[in-house]
Amino acid sequence: MGSSRQERSSHFPDQTLLLATGLANGEIKLWDVPTARFLFHLKGHRAVVRSLAFSPSGSLILVSGSRDKTLHVWDLKQDGKLLRVLTGHSHWVYCCSLSPDANVLCSVGGGRTVLLWNMLSYELIRRLDGHEGDVVSCDFSPDGAMLVTASYDTQAIVWDPHSGEQLMKLSHSSPDVAQDLIAGGFDTGFMRAACFSAEGLYVTSVADDGLLRIWCLTLQRPVSIAPLVNGLCCTFHPRGAVLAAGTRDGHVHFWSVPRHLPTLQHRCRVALRSVMSTQQVTYLSIPNKMKQFLAYKIF
């Protein structure tokens, strides 16, 4: 499921709020949220549509991921024209996410797969290796300088999507326990989802141990924990004051989240990293410690 406030097109009035829903038969339905009016459907997938992502640029581009192991890129301005089918997954696609500048697509799936795609050329940029189980969730930080992925291996990994480097691991279990869980098929530690907060300094994770955790990236540990049975997904409000989580029994839970005022240094980092890659940061004539700060190697 995905939603977005989009630009004007022949099908949509100005600033229409759209909702996309994926179905078990592989179809996607588009809805006008204010009126709850069905607009049209997209056909092309051959199995369950597991994930949907609108372009943050407001260009009316929609990306869908499916159990048929493919990603489809649709242009809603052209009556839902299928622009490209991306193949590269050997197992189900569980989740997809677009970077804030809409230039990079992350897709994750079975077989420990994390793939990054160039949305201008539709070519595969790189594969990220590090998880020991199926990867089920992904999300970019607000400045696009970090990427978080969550896996059945009980871990969330924070990556630098520009270099492919692992910045940190957030573990629900110790490595030894995690390996035993995977080998034994015991799934109480499986992570189901992870997402960044609005300011990019916190990550929320949902797992099968019945807990929702809010991790502070500066401390690399949870600072808040709440009970959540059968948790499946989570997302922050764009302004950061509300956290929502969905469960497998059809419920949606909402939490009021304390708003943290980022430091001036972090605000400057976000402003720079929104327009600069990690490689560009390395070329700056500044002290090495400042480069590490800008690259999120230190907080």
TrEMBL record:
Give the UniProt keywords, A-Z. Answer: Repeat, Ubl conjugation pathway, WD repeat
* Source organism, top-level taxon: Eukaryota
InterPro entries in the record, alphabetically? SOCS_box, SOCS_box-like_dom_sf, WD40/YVTN_repeat-like_dom_sf, WD40_PAC1, WD40_repeat_CS, WD40_repeat_dom_sf, WD40_rpt, WSB_SOCS-box_domain
One GO process term, biological-process aspect: intracellular signal transduction
SMART domains named in the record: SOCS (SM00253), SOCS_box (SM00969), WD40 (SM00320)
Q: Which residues form the signal peptide?
A: none
Q: Where are the WD repeats?
A: 42-84, 86-127, 128-169
Q: Which Pfam families match?
A: SOCS_box, WD40
Tell me what this protein is called. WD repeat and SOCS box containing 2
According to its UniProt entry, this protein's organism is Callorhinchus milii
Taxonomic lineage is: Eukaryota, Metazoa, Chordata, Craniata, Vertebrata
